[in-house]
């Protein structure tokens, strides 16, 4: 379990992270969402003991990172963009870290195969693509078989196949009872992966909840296209719906698809298209951030 | 600490550029040693400083310091292990590069340099931990030697590189001066190593 309690980091007068508090539970994937510069990376660096907090506490399984014995066996981290020495081979990189963390060297080759780098094991890291370097970073994080994984923008540079692979890897880790905290600004990728969501903007946490709750907190929106949009719009509004339009189709909130279909039938407007717009994590995130910014201005 | 030393030595031996430069500078030392023991001592000192500095600064240049400090959170033992690694590498490098000096019968010069050059490696490694950049360190140290030690001190004042050269040429009274500079750099590094690791 990861616990962040009132974590704050100031650089002079600037508060990069301001009283961040949330928990990432075992068996779940927690998404830490924020735009670039919102404080995600600084928060993760404080969690991992790379940056000293100005105040507050970050705990992993009830212990500060700096106090963990054999941290590689407790926490695996993927930070920045595939860190490795360009003059070392992928295999030598992993052996170096196996020696450093006291992990058996015989874990290296199976891990390279697991992340799909067996064929490139003896190639210099400098010749790796960004996606290969990210795979190597994941292998480095998994060296000690840790129950907690902390990842900062791990999908950067991965191709669609790589992203699907990473998604399955992280879901499998959570299914086995592991804790996964993943920071990203690629919201569409996270929507298919995370169980819980933490939204941060301007260094302040704006929202903490299960993803399902975030989706449930918004009204479902319908997109309706019919022969006579004006008559249909009037009929839907008369039934209490909120109706907007992009010129071609109507965006309707406040009605179920069944209700909208019945109203169109009664109004004798043929319907060509009626779909429910699934809540969009990107839109929800932007709504939350915009609302928070507006509140800050007031 | 032993794990860090083993890991650092393995990293050095498997990083092509590091292994190549070690081989090239050793060959240069052997060649210059056939001409003059003093030339060899100069190369041994400069090489030891360079290998000590690069061993530490490479971690910051390629961001592997992040992985190092994630695995070993107590930074002072990590720094001490890096200094020990610099010592081990420089002893090996000095011993091999001085083969021609030894063969020519300059036993005293060989042994004195073998004793003093590793201190230069410690100075380089500690300087690397403070500067966190090989370029900054090398430019800064070169400027120091040219303007302070050579132009101002005429290589006679108790400054680090002057003291190193004096010590390797048999003036062992200068060894404590040189050790003092190295110790001061290590103390500076012990404080500097606590700084945050900033993002890239």
Automatic annotation (TrEMBL), chain A:
**InterPro entries in alphabetical order:** AAA+_ATPase, ABC_transporter-like_ATP-bd, ABC_transporter-like_CS, P-loop_NTPase
This protein's superkingdom?
A: Bacteria
> Which Gene3D superfamilies does UniProt cross-reference here?
P-loop containing nucleotide triphosphate hydrolases
Does the record bear Transport in its keywords?
yes
- Domain (ABC transporter): residue spans on this chain: 2-227
Q: Which Pfam families match?
A: ABC_tran
> Which GO molecular function terms does the record list?
ATP binding
List UniProt keywords, sorted A-Z.
ATP-binding, Nucleotide-binding, Transport
The yes or no answer to whether the keyword ATP-binding is present is yes
Membrane-spanning ranges: none
Q: Which PANTHER family match?
A: ABC TRANSPORTER, ATP-BINDING PROTEIN
| Family the UniProt entry places it in | Belongs to the ABC transporter superfamily.
What is the designated name of this protein?
Answer: ABC transporter ATP-binding protein
The species is Luedemannella helvata
UniProtKB/TrEMBL annotation, chain B:
Alphabetically sorted, this entry's keywords are: Membrane, Transmembrane, Transmembrane helix
Q: Does the keyword Transmembrane helix apply?
A: yes
Q: Where would you find the membrane-spanning parts of this chain?
A: 12-33, 39-57, 78-98, 110-129, 136-155, 175-193
Protein name, entry field: Uncharacterized protein
Q: Which species does this protein come from?
A: Luedemannella helvata
């Amino acid at each position: 379990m990861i616990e962040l309690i009132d974590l704050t980091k100031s650089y002079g007068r600037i508060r990069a992270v301001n009283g961040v508090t949330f928990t990432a539970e075992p068996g779940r994937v927690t998404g830490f969402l924020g735009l670039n510069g919102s404080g995600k990376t600084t928060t993760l660096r404080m969690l991992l003991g790379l940056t000293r907090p100005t105040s507050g506490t970050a705990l992993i399984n009830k212990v500060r990172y700096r106090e963990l014995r054999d941290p590689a066996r407790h926490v695996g981290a993927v930070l920045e963009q595939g860190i490795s020495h360009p003059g070392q081979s992928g295999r030598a990189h992993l052996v170096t870290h196996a020696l450093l963390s006291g992990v058996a060297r015989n874990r290296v080759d199976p891990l390279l195969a697991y992340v799909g780098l067996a064929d490139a094991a003896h190639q210099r890291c400098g010749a790796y693509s960004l996606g290969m370097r990210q795979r190597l970073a994941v292998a480095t994080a998994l060296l000690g078989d840790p129950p907690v994984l902390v990842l900062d923008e791990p999908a950067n540079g991965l191709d669609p196949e790589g992203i699907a692979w990473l998604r399955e890897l992280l879901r499998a880790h959570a299914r086995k009872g592991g804790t996964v905290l993943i920071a990203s600004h690629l919201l569409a990728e996270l929507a298919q992966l995370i169980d819980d969501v933490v939204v941060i903007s301007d260094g302040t946490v704006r929202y903490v909840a299960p993803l399902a709750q975030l989706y449930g907190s918004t009204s479902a929106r319908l997109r309706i296209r019919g022969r006579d949009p004006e008559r249909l719009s009037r009929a839907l509004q008369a039934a209490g719906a909120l109706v907007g339009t992009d010129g071609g189709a109507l965006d309707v909130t406040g009605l179920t698809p069944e209700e909208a279909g019945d109203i169109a039938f009664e109004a004798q407007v043929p319907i060509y298209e009626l779909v429910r717009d699934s809540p969009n994590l990107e839109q929800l995130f932007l709504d939350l951030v915009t609302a928070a910014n507006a509140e800050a201005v007031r | 600490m032993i794990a860090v030393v083993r890991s650092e030595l393995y990293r050095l031996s498997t990083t092509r550029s590091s292994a190549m430069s070690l081989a090239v500078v050793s060959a240069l030392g052997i060649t210059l040693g056939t001409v003059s023991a003093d030339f060899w001592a100069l190369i041994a000192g400069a090489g030891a400083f360079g290998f000590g500095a690069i061993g530490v600064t490479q971690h910051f240049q390629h961001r592997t310091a992040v992985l190092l400090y994630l695995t070993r959170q107590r930074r002072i033992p990590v720094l001490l292990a890096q200094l020990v690694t610099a010592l081990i590498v420089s002893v090996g490098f000095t011993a091999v590069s001085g083969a021609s000096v030894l063969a020519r019968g300059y036993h005293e010069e060989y042994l004195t340099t073998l004793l003093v050059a590793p201190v230069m490696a410690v100075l380089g490694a500690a300087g690397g931990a403070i500067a966190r950049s090989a370029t900054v360190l090398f430019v800064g140290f070169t400027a120091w030697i040219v303007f302070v030690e050579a132009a101002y001190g005429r290589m006679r004042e108790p400054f680090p590189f002057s003291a190193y050269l004096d010590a390797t040429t048999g003036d062992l009274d200068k060894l404590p001066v040189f050790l003092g500079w190295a110790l001061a750099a290590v103390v500076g590094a012990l404080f500097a190593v606590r700084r945050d690791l900033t993002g890239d």
